[in-house]
Every structure is written in C-alpha cells, then in structure tokens.
Design goal:
The chain has 181 residues and is of the alpha+beta class. Helix content is 28%, strand content 23%. Strand 1 and strand 2 form a beta hairpin. It is flat and about 45 Å long.
Length: 181
C-alpha cells in the first residue's frame, strides 16, 4: 500500500520503518531492497535497508563482463533507536541507467550464506563469479545453473535459511524479463 503513496524507494522505506518499528518485537528486524524500474526512462531507482547487495552485470562490458556489487547505505527496518532519525540519515537512494542486455540479480542471504558440511558459505563472490562465467546463458538457464551450483556446493548439509533469487534482464523492446527461483 505504501507504493501507492511513495514513488521514491527511499521515502517508502522511511515510511515502512516508521510503521514497522511501532509494531515489531524489539528483538526483530527486517531487511529489504526496494526498487522501481521505469522502462520508458530505462532506469532503476533503488534503496537498500540492510539487505544483501544487488549484483549488476552490464551488457556493455560484453566480453570479459564483470559483475558490479551495488551496496547503497541503509540499515535494517524496525529498530526502535531514535524515532528513526539514524535510519533516515543512513539511507541512500541510487539510480541505475539500464541498457538492453543488462542483468540484475536480487537474492536473499539464504543464497550467499548457504553452507557446506564444513560450514563454509557459498558467498557473494562465488555467486558473482558464477554469473560472470555463465553470462551467455538465457536468464532461465542461468537461474538453473546457479541453483544447481548451490546444491552441489551444499551437498548433504541441511538448509539453514530460505533461498530466493530473482534475475532480471533488460531486453531491447523496453521490457524487463525475469526468472526467479
């Protein structure tokens, strides 16, 4: 409902923090990234409240493309510290210009913190390398490759957290395609 009131991701997160901190248990918090994609302007405006970074793979880098880690400042939602003043002062909003072929990866910490039986994490760096290595694949196949690699890495170790992965690709017809798992 806040998206009907606030066009700015930063403003939405500030409002959400106010509401959530009034009602959330003092030992709990929420992390999130909120992004608004404008297909006509070919931009994504986003803000991050303590969530995992976004991974951005620009098409313009074509051969030898490298993943950029996007980590605008922002703390978790719901902390009852100082009427939200610190939350507001730390929260950044960023705008990313999008081009056809660009890819964006949103993921939860269940992906990057998936552990093997030695308690080693899969990690954001390994995820970024995997995306770079298989950048030529369609997003649906890339998603499947990532999930298979995580399964192989984890082996028989139990899953400790939920795993959510959203891949977006900008196409040439002012559209954003997606695959999620």
């Amino acid at each position: 409902s806040l998206s009907q009131i606030h066009q700015s991701p930063r403003d939405l997160l500030i409002a959400a923090n106010r509401l959530i901190s009034e009602h959330l248990d003092s030992r709990s918090f929420i992390t999130m990234t909120y992004a608004v994609i404008d297909p006509d302007a070919r931009t994504m405006t986003y803000a991050r409240a303590g969530h995992t970074p976004l991974l951005y793979l620009p098409k313009s880098a074509s051969t030898g493309r490298s993943v950029e880690i996007l980590v605008p400042d922002g703390m978790v939602l719901g902390l009852r510290l100082d009427n939200g003043e610190r939350f507001v002062s730390l929260l950044d909003e960023a705008v990313l210009a999008l081009e056809p072929g660009d890819r964006l990866v949103f993921f939860t910490d269940g992906i990057s913190e998936a552990m093997d039986d030695q308690e080693e994490c899969f990690g954001e760096e390994r995820l970024g390398q995997l995306i770079e290595e298989h950048a030529h694949l369609p997003v649906e196949e890339l998603r499947e490759r990532i999930l298979r690699e995580i399964d192989a890495f984890v082996g028989g170790a139990p899953q400790h957290d939920d795993m959510t992965l959203i891949l977006l690709e900008v196409d040439g017809d002012q559209q954003i395609g997606q695959a999620h798992g």
